Amino acid sequence: MLRLDGVSVSIGAVGILRNVSLEVQRGEFAGLIGRNGAGKTTLLRTVMGLLPFWQGTLAFEGEALARVPTHARVRLGIGYMPEDRRLVPGLTVEENVLLPAWSAKFADADARLARVYAAIPEVHEFRARRALQLSGGQQKLVALARAMMAGTKLLLLDEPFEGLAPIIVEELTRAIRRMRSEEGTAFVLVEQHSDVALGLTEQAVVIERGSIVHRAESAVLLREAATLERLIGLGIDGA
Questions:
Q1: Beta bridge partners of 59
Q2: Over pLDDT 90: what percentage of the chain?
Q3: In what order do the strands lie in the sheet with 211-217?
Q4: What is the pLDDT of residue 235?
Q5: DSSP E strand stretches across the chain
Q6: pLDDT per residue over 5-37, tens digit each?
Q7: pTM above 0.85?
Q8: Region of residue 100 (phi > 0: left; psi between -120 and 50: alpha; otherwise: beta)
Q9: pLDDT grade, residue 239 (50/70/90)?
Q10: Dihedral of CA 206/211/212/214: which sign?
Q11: Is 17 helix (H, G, I), strand (E, B) or coil?
Q12: Lateral strand order in the sheet of 55-60
């Protein structure tokens, strides 16, 4: 479904991603693990078209994405939840959730919205409130709901559970698993704590200094804390 071959990304004169090759299959739940500054967020932003790459190829369902703008990638079924939420403060919750539908001109926006509310009913409860009135945890829920509006095939989640109460984390995890089982949606998850990411995902991809250094089943890597520590240079609960 998603394929990166030898992708390199620089911000200014600084190389961030170096010759990254990665493949995510339909319905796969992959965790992207590495220390702060390893390139995790840059990789997600590159897939979403928010950062250009100067080397390699990037394709989604066989379509090359190098010249495809972000709003067109949304139409392909790719959703992105940024770490910093990026809600529009003056818009209502529902308006924020609908932004991808407006941008991509989805004809089925109402059906998509109903699907999102069914997956995250808490967002439906405060849909009329403005984003600036929400707590940090509520903003995270809205950011995930907005990503789900577009991400019917692939969801890129950057720290989705940060700041959320455990009970809400459990609810979101159930919603994600429902999407995978019912729709075959693939996920790439970046999570601050590696043990959390490994516990939720099936495949783990370790990135260090902008390069993929290891890939393994998450359950295997979770049992091998010493291996993970050696790969990323810090303990298993590191970012």
A1: 3, 64
A2: 59
A3: 78-81, 154-158, 186-190, 29-33, 203-208, 211-217
A4: 40
A5: 2-11, 14-24, 29-33, 55-60, 63-64, 78-81, 154-158, 186-190, 203-208, 211-217
A6: 999 999 988 999 999 999 999 989 999 988 888
A7: yes
A8: alpha
A9: very low
A10: negative
A11: strand
A12: 14-24, 2-11, 55-60, 63-64
Which two tokens mark 215? 């890939």
Residue 149, both tokens: 């509006």
Q: Which amino acid is at 113?
A: L
d(CA 108, CA 147) in angstroms, rounded, equals 15
The residue among 189, 140, 194, 148 whose CA lies nearest residue 164 is 140
**What's the Rg (C-alpha) of the chain?**
17
Q: Is 113 exposed, middle or buried (0-12, 13-18, 19+ CB in 10 A)?
A: buried
pLDDT in tens, 145-182: 999 999 999 999 998 887 778 877 777 777 777 776 66
Which amino acid is present at 168?
A: I
**The domain 2-232: what is its CATH number?**
3.40.50.300
